[in-house]
Write a structure and sequence with these properties.
globular, alpha+beta, 125 residues, four-stranded mixed sheet, 38% helix
Amino acid sequence: MAELRSEIQAFYAGFGQPELLRQAFEAAVLVVPLVEDDRVPTSPVGGIDWIPAFTSVEEYARYMVARGVSEEREYRYHTLQGALLTGYAAARTEPTGVSVDCVGAAPVAFPPRPAAETTAAEVEA
């Protein structure tokens, strides 16, 4: 996770390298919300479905509070590697990206990759 946070900081400082950021994301283990039937939720924005993912449980909690939910309630989540999220997003029929820490101090979005950039391993994951 430290590598992903470092690459995000580099991106915000203006000297990030997109491929290193993507690699750090795919190697990171992220907190991903689960909805009632154990599915990973998506939210449509701008014609793209976005999977919310977080660098910590605290970032996930910040997201839930921003959505107006009770701080006292327990919210389910799973930890998944970024590469698995990329593969899941690529396998969906709708264009799907991953949004990391979307209400945090340093949000970053990984938009859908063109089919030519998606490897067979990502789709099989």
